[in-house]
Design brief:
The structure holds two protein chains of two kinds. By secondary structure, chain A is an alpha+beta fold. Chain A is 29% helix and 31% strand. In chain A, a hairpin with a 2-residue loop joins strand 4 and strand 5. Chain B is an alpha+beta fold. The radius of gyration of chain B is 17 Å and the shape is elongated. Classes of the chains: A alpha+beta, B alpha+beta. The interface between A and B is medium-sized, with 22 and 22 residues.
Chain lengths: 137, 138
């Protein structure tokens, strides 16, 4: 089994805000991330797949094709968008990177051709903050 | 002999913005600025490098105390721009397009009065790891 990672990036605005709470409570919990007029990040997305190299191509999956798929299914929906407002799969969800990475998994995973398996998504929000998700609950 | 030394302080801030010229219609804005003009904003992790050039002080050995420079950047720049929407939340970009170029010029002008006159100041601003600007241009 070999693991292959493709890195893509997108820039987006968001805010951390729970509409069921008062502004004061949101400020208390989310601090300046709750700024009502949004802030933003350069996000880096690491997509790791796993599988056995194909005997003819030597690839688990063509990394260029993987890049194309990530762009088509995920990056086009996220890049230069407002994550709270513009992204269909984040509607009604709190816009944390935890929820975002789980949403990205659902968007991407069904489009990987068998027998390629999605192993891990790593989503980097800043140099100091990132999440990893391996699927499941 | 010229004993000038350049010292640098690196800081960062996260902000939302959009590129938009209010004198143009939406079609023209999209044509020129592409997806950077989208109405609901997008955002960046801005990396800011402040460069100060001068001769080290005879008594301290410092061109400038980097802790003081850090405090200055925090007070004048980060408090103003971090986790803000540059178009909506800042006075500086109410009527100025918040391109990396203009942000660098604004940062320079905010800091310049607080840096000793005999020292040179230069701003390098990364909007993404691949796009960055410098002001004044060397």
């Amino acid at each position: 089994m070999v693991y292959l990672t493709r890195v893509e990036h997108f820039n987006a605005a968001h805010k951390l805000y729970n509409p069921d709470w008062s502004k004061e409570k949101n400020d208390e919990v989310f601090g300046k991330c709750a700024n009502e007029n949004w802030h933003g990040h350069n996000f880096e997305l690491y997509v790791t797949i796993k599988g056995e190299p194909d005997p003819e191509s030597g690839f688990i999956f063509d990394a260029k094709k993987l890049g194309g798929l990530i762009n088509e299914k995920v990056i086009e929906k996220l890049d230069h968008q407002n994550l709270n407002v513009d992204v269909d799969f984040m509607k009604g969800k709190l816009c944390s990177i935890e929820n975002l990475v789980m949403g990205i998994w659902k968007e991407l995973e069904p489009h990987l051709p068998s027998p390629v398996q999605l192993h891990c998504l790593k989503l980097v929000e800043t140099d100091k903050i990132f999440v990893e998700y391996y699927g499941g609950k | 002999m010229d004993k000038k030394v350049a010292v640098f302080r690196k800081e960062h801030f996260n902000a939302a913005h959009r590129l938009f010229n209010a004198d143009w219609d939406d079609k023209k804005n999209m044509e020129v600025f592409g997806k950077c003009a989208l109405p609901n904003y997008h955002g960046h992790n801005y990396e800011l490098i402040v460069k100060v050039v001068g001769e080290p002080d005879e008594k301290t050995g410092y061109v400038m105390d980097l802790k003081q420079l850090s405090d200055l950047v925090e007070e004048k720049i980060l408090e103003r721009f971090d986790h803000k929407n540059l178009n909506l939340d800042t006075e500086e970009f109410k009527n100025l397009n918040p391109t990396a170029e203009n942000i660098a010029i604004v940062i320079y002008e905010l800091l310049r009065p607080h840096i000793p006159k005999e020292k040179d100041l230069q701003i390098r601003l990364y909007e993404t790891p691949r796009n960055f600007v410098e002001y004044p241009a060397p």
